[in-house]
Design a protein that fits this description.
By secondary structure, the chain is α/β, with parallel strands linked by helices. The chain is built from 10 helices and 13 strands. Strands 5-4-3-6-7-12 form a 6-stranded mixed beta sheet, with helices on both faces. Strands 1-2-13 form a 3-stranded antiparallel beta sheet. Helix 7 links the parallel strand 6 and strand 7.
């Protein structure tokens, strides 16, 4: 026998505590009666009170409560083998981890806001595989395509602006890494989602987008930041914060480059969304585009399907409750 929700078994402690309380109350009732009158008078006054019957009622109530807790834990025994197919699509999520993603024109900053949005997206996935690419001047696969969403979130949490040693922003390298990961996956089941501020400093993103188009891969872009932009706030050597400066000593201001991201998405037949406070864009892309894509069988396995038997303890609990209500805690008088 096994329990589908064993955490409910902790409720048995409540059944035990309820029993202790009821027996304590019964004992207290006896003591009060003894203080109220002399022993021979107490016996006469309580002649109709049946202590044994009261005890039975308490035991039946506690038993019914315990059986109800066991039923809530969903006991199971017996099983059948069942073939389970996992269907879904493949989503490679490429996140910009260049220093410009520390800009605070989106609170708390662009990178942290992106992580929060990705966590919300994970809640929507039901069987889809997802992988994580971090990119700046170079791009690396931090989490291969997987349905282990817990493992994916751990990789996401570790992602920061020091994850990619080479600085800058290279969108074409991010797409190249995605194409490499997708080498053996049929085109109609795969998509690339890029989250960035669009400030590309090297490479040719449009050329790489056309290459993705040739392979049948759609690229979806989420632009994060504002057109007005803001200064880039980074951590200094002693743990404090300072604003980033360029080689000439001028403060660096990062702005959202929507034009490039729109062209990349358009070149592949994908979609561009600008992230905002109310709607980041990942949910919109998934609901409008990715959720409608054709699914494929990602995994087929044989599982044991256990049979629920909660009806047994539940029925016994009801029997005990009915029995308890039929007991009268008074002795019968015969005339």
């Amino acid at each position: 026998m096994r329990f589908e929700q064993p955490e409910f078994l902790h409720g048995l402690w409540l059944a035990a505590l309820a029993g202790l309380f009821l027996f304590w109350a019964l004992k207290r009732k006896q003591k009060i009666l003894q203080r109220f009158a002399q022993p021979h008078l107490a016996e006469h006054l309580a002649a109709s009170w049946d202590l044994a019957q009261e005890t039975r009622k308490i035991l039946l109530l506690c038993g019914a409560l315990a059986l109800g807790v066991i039923a809530a834990a969903r006991p199971q025994w017996g099983f059948e083998l069942q073939e389970v197919k996992r269907q879904g699509i493949d989503i490679l999520l490429a996140i910009d981890v260049s220093k410009s993603m520390l800009t605070e024109d989106v609170k708390p900053n662009r990178l942290e806001r992106t992580k929060l949005a990705v966590k919300d997206l994970i809640k929507k996935l039901k069987g889809d595989r997802i992988g994580l690419i971090g990119f700046a001047g170079d791009a690396f696969l931090f989490c291969p395509l997987t349905v282990d969403y817990g493992g994916f979130l751990l990789s996401l949490e570790d992602l920061d602006v020091t994850s990619v040693p080479r600085g800058g922003t290279n969108l074409s390298q991010a797409m190249s890494e995605a194409l490499k990961e997708y080498e053996n996956v049929p085109a109609k089941y795969k998509a690339v989602v890029i989250v960035t501020d669009g400030e590309n400093l090297e490479g040719d993103p449009l050329a790489m987008a056309r290459r993705a188009k040739e392979k049948g891969i759609k690229v979806y872009c989420v632009g994060i930041g504002t057109k007005e932009g803001d200064l880039v706030r980074v951590q200094d050597m002693v743990g404090g914060h300072e604003f980033l400066k360029d080689e000439n000593g001028n403060f660096v201001k990062s702005r959202l480059n929507e034009d490039l991201l729109q062209k990349v998405a358009l070149a592949t037949g994908g979609m561009y969304v600008r992230a905002s406070g109310a709607q980041f864009g990942l949910d919109m892309i998934y609901d409008r585009e990715l959720a409608k894509m054709e699914r494929r069988d990602l995994e087929t396995r044989v599982e044991k399907k256990y049979f629920d038997r909660f009806q047994v303890p539940l029925a016994l609990a009801l029997v005990l409750l009915v029995w308890e209500t039929c007991l009268v805690p008074r002795k019968a008088k015969f005339i």
